[in-house]
Amino acid sequence: MIPRYLVDVDLDTIPHIHTDVIVIGAGIAGLFTALRAGESKKVLMITKKSLLDSNTRYAQGGIAAVISDEDSPEYHMQDTLVAGAGLCSREAVDVLVHEGPNGVQDLIRMGTQFDLENGEFALTKEGAHSQRRILHAHGDATGAEIVRALSERTKQDPNIEIWDDHFVIDLITEDGECYGALVQKPDGQRVFVRGNATVLCSGGAGQLFRYTTNPDIATGDGIAIAYRAGAHVQDVEFIQFHPTALCYPGAPRFLISEAVRGEGAILRNIKGERFMEKYHPQLELAPRDVVARAIVDEMENTKSTFVYIDITHESEELVKHRFPTIYEYCLQYGLDLTTDWIPVAPAAHYMMGGVKTDLYGETAVKRLFACGEVSSTGVHGANRLASNSLSEAIVFGRRIVERIQELPPLERSPQLEVDALRTESPKQAVVEKRLKLQKVMLRYAGLKRSAQGLQKGYEELTRQLPFYDTIMTKREEYEFANLLNCALLTTMAAIAREESRGGHYREDFPQRDDEHWLKHIVCKRGEDRVEEWI
User: Fold this and answer.
1) Which among 3, 37, 375, 417 is least surrounded, fewest beta carbons within 10 Å?
2) Where does the Fumarate reductase/succinate dehydrogenase flavoprotein-like C-terminal domain start and stop, copy by copy (predicted)?
3) Beta strands in 223-341 (DSSP E)
4) Burial of 2 from C-beta contacts in 10 A (0-12 / 13-18 / 19+)
5) Whole-angstrom distance, CA of residue 45 vs CA of residue 471
6) Three-class SS state of 415
């Protein structure tokens, strides 16, 4: 059983700090929500590393919004619903496609500079989009530009206080209401931060897997602390593996953006053969899960660890202009995007599920909100449409702040006292435990799954449960505890879903089964269940 709190603490013995809004995380969701909330409230922004470390920073492709006269919210909605494979919430998608353009205007007002062509936004197209609706910045550095603009603004905002290198261990709750968070400072001291509203913007859980495009900090903290606090966690079996991450000795799994295929790149197996026509009529622009599994099939058939992405037929000028970051990055490893085929393989990229929220980002725990990749708003369904993630963060960030304005102030402090129960220190080095967990997840809960493998993976993970009985004091220990929490939820949900849909593929149930599985799997501490979806 996963305990309610990771550490034994008596709140009366530690310092208390009060603020209006606590924002946990510093990607686009955290920065944007903090700035909007800071217009009328005091905000404390807590990040475990720094403002510039988040998944957003690595987002290359762009942000999807209806800008062009040839496009419409209806087209955007249809593309999102198709990609989501029957599990999107129509209401949530409707909110996204209609409110996305205003969110983009907010970003521009906050200093984001999107690329222009002849005075108009330079819109591009990505996989599974029917129209050109992706705004980008500096060619392929959209996330970095958004983070630059928003973080500069947060630093200058007198209503926003930023705590870098602080770790949120757990949320403090009583009677289904969130009072704030237990936070560990860089020197190891713990404090209770009390807030009228707490917003989780802590990103995804790419570090569940051995190979991921996510930074080291993506350890599923928000999902785990929300689960322990009593929030509902939904759709975590749906993990998106990006089909094309750089796969080269000595290089990290750097993302080779979907936009490269959008501009005409083709995929070739180790023999140099183009192969996507065997798998899908949309070829290289098929949905990500299809492309990722096709690549794995080709790698297995040719006994290789990678395939190639080839854009050498496009002009050198176009490639360098459109993909300067990817071009420069590959060059560091002796690979020239304009003349070389680039070796790529799938890597864990995005978690479609997360902390279940309503259309205003509120969770099942009062005063607790979730925004961005940590949340499950219902927008992504079983498979996220490319570039919808940045839009989702802005649209729901705005709505969360609207709801926060309506909250009455907290009247009292919670009465929380935990007896000191834990006496042992962790025995095995956490770095070894983490690597073992990642290998288990990659082998049994990766791109291709089966009942037998998932069960074996789940059993191996449960052997790590005694870790929760140890005294944790370091960030890496809390991170491992959170990863283990997320890994157990993901494998449990993947075992339960006996079909293939979107980012969840079962070799023993290879077909989509709408008759039995047009529903969500919702996990709540103590009572994991399948929820019917209408």
Assistant:
1) 417
2) 434-524
3) 233-234, 239-246, 266-268, 307-310
4) middle
5) 27
6) coil
Q: How does strand 239-246 pair with strand 233-234? A: unpaired
Q: Could you list the active site residues? A: 288
Q: What's the gap between Cα 163 and its chain centre?
A: 22
pTM beyond cutoff 0.90: yes
Q: Concatenated DSSP letters for 49-70?
A: S-TT-SSGGG--S-EE---STT
Instruction: Give Cα separations from 478 to 5, 6, 10, 178, 221 (angstroms).
Output: 11, 8, 18, 20, 8
What is the Cα 315 distance to its own chain's centre? 34
**pLDDT tens figures, 214-231:** 989 999 999 999 999 999
Enumerate domains of the chain plus CATH numbers. Answer: 13-238+352-405 (3.50.50.60), 245-348 (3.90.700.10), 430-528 (1.20.58.100)
Tell me if residue 316 falls in helix, strand or coil. Answer: helix
CA distances for 287 relative to 73, 132, 260, angstroms: 20, 16, 14
- In tens, the pLDDT along 134-187 reads 999 987 788 889 989 999 999 999 999 999 999 999 999 999 999 999 999 999
Distance (Å, whole) CA 394 – CA 99: 9
Beta bridge partners of 309: 267, 342
